[in-house]
Write a structure and sequence with these properties.
- The complex is a heterodimer of chains A (114) and B (110).
- Chain A has 114 residues and is mainly β.
- Chain A is 0% helix and 51% strand.
- Chain A is built from no helices and 11 strands.
- Chain A has strands at residues 4-7, 10-13, 19-25, 31-38, 42-49, 56-57, 64-68, 74-78, 87-94, 104-105, 109-113.
- The radius of gyration of chain A is 13 Å and the shape is globular.
- Chain B is mainly beta.
- Chain B contains no helices and 11 strands.
- Chain B has strands at residues 4-6, 11-14, 19-25, 32-38, 44-50, 55-57, 60-65, 70-75, 84-91, 98-100, 104-109.
- The N and C termini of chain B lie far apart (37 Å).
- Classes of the chains: A mainly beta (114), B mainly beta (110).
- Chain A binds chain B through residues 35, 40-45, 48, 58, 90, 96, 101-103, 105-108, and chain B through 4, 8, 32, 34, 42-46, 49, 87, 91, 96-98, 100-103.
Chain lengths: 114, 110
């Protein structure tokens, strides 16, 4: 099993450009998440999808949109990139049952906006 | 005030030392607690869950103090391979989502 995969691994954008970060999981998990990680800030939730067909805002959703394409895939889109969106982006998935709230993370995308 | 607070460190210890990290959380209704480990430039991975009665996994011991709203992680006989950032994580009872602390960095030196 690959677990959670993310593409691309690295990306440099100019201010105003758009891009989509892709995420896929093969663990048949219901819930998927997008986080950003900045120095001194810890992981902050951008958007999440509790189940296929649903998406909700997290702590820092401004400037982002998401699509839960199917149970496996959850994409994050930056419509007009800003330097403040320079960060490391992690996708995660979880079965999210009372038996397990563990989240499994992808390897991350390092995004720089100039 | 952050919902989950950790001393960022770094904690620099020699091999074989015992080191302890604490983490405080602000929501007294929080129900589930975890420690994640994150190696440099890698993704976080679950190290262990934290149970009310305390739990141990090899050289690692996690404790929960609900009255004082803090969680601890004790590492005995530190190894070079323990060098990483340790993230304290709390599951919010209000939203069900995980709230991550900023992490505590441990550097174990020979």
């Amino acid at each position: 099993n690959a677990g959670v995969t993310q593409t691309p691994k690295f990306q440099v954008l100019k201010t105003g450009q758009s891009m989509t970060l892709q995420c896929a999981q093969d663990m048949n998990h219901n819930s998927m998440y997008w986080y950003r990680q900045d120095p001194g800030m810890g992981l902050r939730l951008i958007y999440y999808s509790a189940s296929e067909g649903t998406t909700d805002k997290g702590e820092v959703p401004n400037g982002y949109n998401v699509s839960r394409l199917n149970k496996r895939e959850f994409s994050l889109r930056l419509e007009s990139a800003a330097p403040s969106q320079t960060s490391v982006y992690f996708c995660a998935s979880s079965a999210f049952t009372s038996a397990s709230y563990e989240q499994y993370f992808g390897p991350g995308t390092r995004l720089t906006v100039t | 005030r952050k919902e989950v607070e950790q001393d960022p460190g770094p904690f620099n210890v020699p091999e074989g030392a015992t080191v302890a990290f604490n983490c405080t959380y602000s929501n007294s209704a929080s129900q589930s607690f975890f420690w994640y480990r994150q190696d440099c430039r890698k993704e976080p991975k679950l190290l262990m869950s934290v149970y009310s009665s305390g739990n141990e996994d090899g050289r690692f011991t996690a404790q929960l103090n609900r009255a004082s709203q803090y969680i601890s992680l004790l590492i005995r006989d530190s190894k070079l391979s323990d060098s990483a950032t340790y993230l304290c994580v709390v599951r919010s009872s209000n939203t069900g989502k995980l709230i991550f602390g900023q992490g505590t960095t441990l550097q174990v030196k020979p």
